[in-house]
Write a structure and sequence with these properties.
With about 325 residues, the protein is mainly beta. It contains one helix and 24 strands. The protein is globular and about 45 Å long.
Length: about 325
């Protein structure tokens, strides 16, 4: 290719990158995925509840935390935590009778399973729980059923991520009168620090709904009601904000720093010009490269995707709340 041709291509890529990062609006991107229906095989008689919690572990198994077949686990006796193999077969389930409002699931590098229970009732909830891969409780953060903003309480915890060092980060808050902060703990659950408050400025939050970490150790927080991702170092120093990924409900970052972000709320009122769906890009440059659009009411069943994860081959898993489903998207 002539030297001038290469320059034109490089310039075009640079222009798209600048527009994508700084315009605050997502540039139209291709959708190289198709939907696989009825991928996961639930036990007989069990149906999906609302869920925004899905995570693919290193061997490729898919973990899901649903709301016990309904909108809540309060009063239910069914297990809300599922482990599926890549074919959709259930390998394990546990957690019955333990939770109120399942809201997040994360699997650390040692295969331990972390979940966030985002509401409190009857002496349960408002906690983050660490399980062994077999379902044994290893650690609990927060006080059961107690809402607060101290070093040992949460008010609607929404998400959790664990650093390679073992330090724990909880996105604490779900809008309204709940908290709006990130809380950092040592690997054995001792409070280290917290940052953030309700607001729109850098380092402030309005519904910190998701949290993930890239290979460099940066924290990506889905500041949903502010329609942005905020990026921090592990001590809470603000580094950047991105609006090109829409109004983030869920964030997943894979081993290659591919970032998957769900948008379940954008519309002409709260985030004009931005469509709902799953945006896929890279934490290295912030460019959105692919977009899986949400299924609308004319494409039944609809999709309200909040949680997201992906396997090593790039298959995408979307956990849905209002539409109560777990979807799998496979590259064409």
């Amino acid at each position: 290719m002539p030297h001038t041709g290469r320059l034109r291509i490089a310039l075009a890529i640079a222009i798209v990158t600048v527009i994508s990062i700084f315009s605050g609006k997502a540039v139209a991107q291709p959708n190289p995925y198709h939907l696989v229906e009825n991928w996961a095989k639930l036990p007989e008689g069990r149906t999906w509840g609302a869920t925004n919690a899905v995570f693919v572990d290193r061997p490729g198994n898919v973990w899901v935390f649903d709301r016990c077949g309904g909108a809540t686990c309060s009063g239910s006796s069914v297990a809300p935590i599922f482990k599926f193999d890549p074919s959709g077969k259930v390998l394990k389930s546990f957690g019955e009778g333990m939770f109120v409002f399942p809201h997040a699931i994360y699997v650390d590098q040692n295969s331990n399973v972390w979940v966030a229970d985002g509401q409190g009732k009857d002496g349960k909830g408002q906690q983050v729980t660490k399980f062994s891969p077999d379902g044994k409780v290893l650690l609990k953060l927060g006080k059961a059923g107690v809402a607060g903003d101290g070093p040992d309480t949460f008010n609607q915890p929404s998400a959790v991520v664990v650093a390679p060092s073992g330090e724990i980060y909880v996105a604490d808050g779900h809008g309204g009168d709940s908290n709006a902060r990130i809380v950092k703990f040592s690997k054995d659950g001792k409070f280290i620090t917290s940052w953030g408050k309700k607001g729109k400025a850098a380092g402030e939050f309005d519904t910190p709904h998701a949290i993930a970490m890239d290979s460099t150790g940066r924290l990506f927080v889905g500041d949903r009601s502010n329609s942005r991702i905020q990026i921090f170092d592990q001590d809470g120093k603000f580094l950047n904000e991105w609006k090109q990924f829409g109004r983030p409900s869920g964030i997943y970052i894979d081993a290659k720093d591919t970032i998957y972000v769900t948008d379940s709320q954008s519309d002409e009122k709260v985030n004009p010009g931005v469509k709902q769906g799953i945006r896929i890009g890279s934490t290295k440059d912030g460019v959105v490269k692919m977009f899986i659009p949400a299924l609308g009411p004319d494409e039944k069943p609809t999709s309200v995707t909040e949680g997201v994860s992906a396997d090593a081959t790039g298959n995408v898993y979307g956990a849905e709340t209002g539409s109560k489903n777990l979807r799998k998207y496979v590259k064409n």
